Amino acid sequence: MENTITVYLEQENGERIPLETPTDMGLSIMEVLKANEFDVPAICGGMAICATCHVEVLESGELPEPSDDEAYMLESLPHATERSRLSCQLKAKPELDGLVVRLMPEA
Amino acid sequence: MITTDICIVGAGPVGLFAVFEAGLLKMRCHLVDALPAVGGQLSEIYPKKPIYDIPGFPEVLAGDLVKNLEQQIAPFHPTFTLGERVEELQKQEDGSFIVLTSEGTQIACKVVVIAGGLGSFEPRKPAVENLEQFEGKGVAYMVKDPETFRDKKVVLAGGGDSALDWTIFLANVAEELTLVHRGTTFRGAPESAEKVLSLAEEGKINLMLKSNVVEVQGNGKLNAVSVLVDNNANQKLDVDYFIPLFGLVPKLGPLENWGLELDKNAIVVNTTDYSTNIPGVYAIGDINTYPGKLKLILCGFHEAALMAQSAYNIIYPDKKFVLKYTTVNGIQELA
What we know:
Strand order of the largest sheet of chain B: 6-3-2-10-22
Distance between the termini of chain B: 20 Å
CATH topology of chain A: Ubiquitin-like (UB roll)
Oligomer: heterodimer
Distance between the termini of chain A: 36 Å
Strand content of chain B: 25-35%
Helix content of chain A: 10-25%
Number of domains of chain A: 1
Number of helices of chain B: 7
Shape of chain A: globular
CATH superfamily of chain A: Beta-grasp domain
Largest sheet of chain B: 5 strands, parallel
Radius of gyration of chain B: 24 Å
Number of helices of chain A: 2
């Protein structure tokens, strides 16, 4: 479908759940996850200040560089990895088609 | 003891607007907030960010919205306890409440309105084995009195400004200071990062990069930490204090123990009037949850209006509520 990509959420058992994601609504991956009723607290509502939407990117094309706010928050997370991102800061765009993420434990 | 009609917990935009809605109905409000100023996250986190979805304001800076709200509620002369966190809610025999704060302030009121937004910010705890067992026995999440660490062996963990600043400060206080950082670079203030690297080169601190504290040990009191270096080797350090500095995370805090019905860190409310499961206690704004909840400031404003109508029946049980329009009645200042 035009203006739609598929991102995948990998479960603990390795199963990858496809999520049809519109790219013309300005949604973030956090909002896509919440819309699909996954347990993403996102307490701060997408301002990169609570890190409760923390994901690890398992597969992707080229991702946008994290903003200073996101990078600073990731730096402060004790269990972040080099592939960590805040899903609230990843906008659903065509370049993210095929993105695979897994939810990280709540901060 | 402070006496009021409504004690509002949280002085963010929704808490402030609740004063207006209560004031129209001749109810007095006292606001309590853990932050030292009103405005909540609008003042604390993004005062210069524009907001576009406040009716009548095509664009308004968060800080300006707070100033406008303060001006709007001024005729109702609210009172404030700032810089103190609410701790306890004590229900009295007559159905009223006493709210106690972290500094011992007592507020007697007939209605409590929780407008706590994200909740209060508390230290983020890393997943370290045995960590909580040693809290207050060598594990601390903030530096309250640097003298505590004089001539002690201290391990700090983290890579943000707080970790860098305290590393620099405690380098001259502690007998032995180690900074453990997961990454290889620092994103804090560049001058702080350079200073920490210089201290390490001069041998004044131990800097362990690509490292994580994975376990704390002791016998009643902390005496060692285990550090995983480069995901490979474990190194044991003898320490007196371990201070993980990984920023703050919003939590409900003491509200969790008030007996409120909760769902994933939010307070469940009845959408008729935003009352909670405790009669006389309401929750409005981002801190509540109900089917269809939208975390928007304007939704919190709506919730404040409905809450005030319901609270009126508690504060004036013998009077019949009649909705008054400001276009007809204007704003009648409370004496």
